[in-house]
Write a structure and sequence with these properties.
This protein is mostly beta strands. Helix content is 12%, strand content 45%.
């Protein structure tokens, strides 16, 4: 968690990761656990697998090959889906520590249960191509960055406080053979804007989900499990081009933990967030033979009042910023559709440094799927993140974070990801550089 000096509010900067295979969106249930509890989850998984492995290696392989850990529920899951109801639940945990640097050395656990229910109203009520979507989250743990390191880029992307909340609640209508999609309700802007597949392979919150540069400067830009009233439309074309635009309520107070996502206040007179993005997704169709990519440019504008970041008793109406994203597979192994090397880069710019803590933020990296021949579904990733602080903050200059990790894809529904990070000049200065080590684990149920 970081302090957004533009608003004086604490703003969480994380989003759910891209999970083992699918990104599930309605919470089914959980218990509160700490670091020991998270470790117990891992031990339980290992113990439960052991007798299966001893009896039959093929049985274990079949289990790991399922789409989810709980399987098809004796056929009930397929029946529900045929009837138009799809349920998903994921648990992801980050267990990380800083053996050197920061304000003090600690190891902390953060975890999130995140689930969804998607209801196809075409199948249930004959309303063609209309879906109803609800999502919920239970977040737990402690903030290693905010409590012990003091840096800007939260090292555990899954940390979102300690609360149960309604995450999203919206309708989505597809028209013209899915070339037009319109969503309305309680939406997270980060689901549809300033995002890329590459971001999901990192544990640090600098980009996981969405670039931190936007989240720091625009607290109204919400990411799951936080949502606002909004409407979003997306048009796609047959030549892989798309255009998206959205308008959202811009009140950060609805994100407070004590309202559990149930503050349905609509107050556009206090501020509106507007977003627009144009992009190109070459070679991403089912019949494409070239190397896939993702390119996007976008802008945001917020009509809310913004306080000066230097602490002066001044404010101004409105704020705006721009971003650009490029992701491109540059090498594909022979005979494979997924294995190979992808590079990516992102830039965020918010020109007015009187009201923006981070006028410039840069992110980049690369990941390789199937680096080791014996593990074709594993992903090895490296990333670097840079934040340049406002010139009106003389004691803060820049922060740089480096990350390297390897995701062991143990099954369609399970991965374990050892992670190494190094934070240079935390929070722009005055704090010792920090080494961070640990892992992330994720299970789709």
């Amino acid at each position: 968690m970081i302090l957004n000096r533009a608003t004086g509010r604490q703003r969480r900067t994380t989003t759910p990761v891209e999970h083992s295979r699918n990104r599930p969106k309605a919470i089914i249930g959980s218990c509160r656990i700490g670091t020991g509890g998270a470790l117990a989850v891992g031990v339980a998984l290992a113990v439960s697998a052991a007798p299966v492995s001893a009896q039959s290696q093929s049985a274990l392989q079949q289990w790991l090959a399922q789409d989810t850990a709980t399987g098809n529920w004796g056929g009930e899951r397929t029946q529900l889906s045929n009837d138009g109801v799809d349920l998903a639940l994921n648990f992801t945990t980050d267990i990380l520590g800083n053996p050197t640097g920061g304000m003090e050395q600690r190891t902390e656990f953060a975890g999130m249960w995140y689930g969804t229910a998607t209801v196809d109203l075409g199948a249930l009520a004959g309303l063609t191509s209309l879906t109803f979507n609800v999502a919920g989250a239970l977040t737990q743990g402690r903030d290693l960055s905010g409590d012990h390191i003091g840096n800007l880029f939260a090292v555990a992307q899954v940390f979102n406080g300690d609360t149960l909340r309604l995450a999203e609640l919206y309708f989505e209508q597809s028209l013209f053979s899915d070339q037009l999609s319109i969503a309305i309700g309680r939406l997270a802007a980060g689901d549809d804007f300033a995002t890329a597949d590459a971001y999901g392979y990192y544990v640090i919150s600098a980009v996981n989900g969405n670039p931190t540069g936007i989240l720091v400067n625009a607290p109204s830009f919400t990411t799951p499990p936080f949502a606002q009233w909004g409407v979003r439309g997306t048009v796609t074309t047959e030549n892989d081009l798309y255009f998206s635009a959205g308008v959202y309520n811009a009140d950060p107070d609805v994100q407070d933990d004590d309202v559990n996502g149930l503050d349905f206040t609509l107050n556009p007179q206090d501020g509106v967030l507007m977003l627009a993005e144009a992009g190109w997704n070459p070679n991403t169709g089912d019949d494409a033979t070239g190397l896939p990519g993702h390119y996007a440019i976008g802008m945001w504008g917020d009509t809310s009042d913004y306080a000066f970041v230097n602490g002066a008793d001044q404010s101004q109406d409105g704020n705006y910023g721009f971003y650009a994203i490029a992701q491109q597979m540059v090498y594909r192994e022979q005979g494979s559709s997924d294995e190979g090397l992808t590079i990516w880069g992102t830039i965020n710019v918010a020109p007015d440094d009187d009201i923006n803590t981070l006028p410039v933020a840069l992110f980049g990296g690369a990941y390789y799927e199937g680096l080791f021949p014996s593990r074709p579904e594993d992903v090895t990733a490296f990333g670097i993140s840079y934040a340049g602080f406002s010139d009106t903050l003389p004691d803060q200059t820049y922060e740089v974070a480096l990350e390297i990790n390897h995701r062991f894809q143990l099954g369609n529904w399970l991965y374990v990801q050892p992670d190494l990070q190094y934070v240079v000049n935390p929070n722009g200065g005055g704090i010792d550089d920090a080494l961070v080590v640990g892992f992330e684990a994720s299970v789709d149920f």
